[in-house]
Amino acid sequence: MDIRETLTMRTVTALQRLADLEERGRALAGPKAAVLRTALRELESALEELRVATEQLNEMVDEMSGARLEAKQIESQFTVFRNLLPLGCIITDAEGVIAAANSIAGDLLNVAPRHLAGKPLALYMVDRDRFFGMLSTLRLTRETVKKDLGVRPRERKPRTMNVHLTQIPDTPELYWFLQEPVAAAANTTTGAS
User: Which end of the chain is more exposed for a tag (fewer CB within 10 A), N or C?
Assistant: First the structure.
């Protein structure tokens, strides 16, 4: 039994006890009986307020549970979408610390996406001044920043990639999209045949 059920049951029990006390109080007479009846009316009012508050609390908890479930579903859909993107997608905080990455980003950086979380994205950048310049520009303009940056995958030689940095309004996350330059990708494709 959860706390809400316990609170509801205790409120119902208190209302039943109050009804029993009111029934016994009707048999009393005299000045003490008037004081008792007044106290019982005040108690009845307080218990009714508690009952209403309990119902409102239950409704709010149900709404929050629904909203939490909806948020999890949206997050799951977003994760699926991010993993279907045909380019590397990395989500960082405002300082550039990685929160999540898709598999293509993991391939580009030669690190499993789950191992990227918590690491500064700057570790994988050749020219960190240009990297931090992108962060500064985004903070100032709030518009997508696009640059070619030297990226240093783990245990591979550095290479230049098209990097787009953007932020969805009113969210703290930064979205980094990494892609091989079109000419380099075309050369790789023709060289592989």
Answer: C
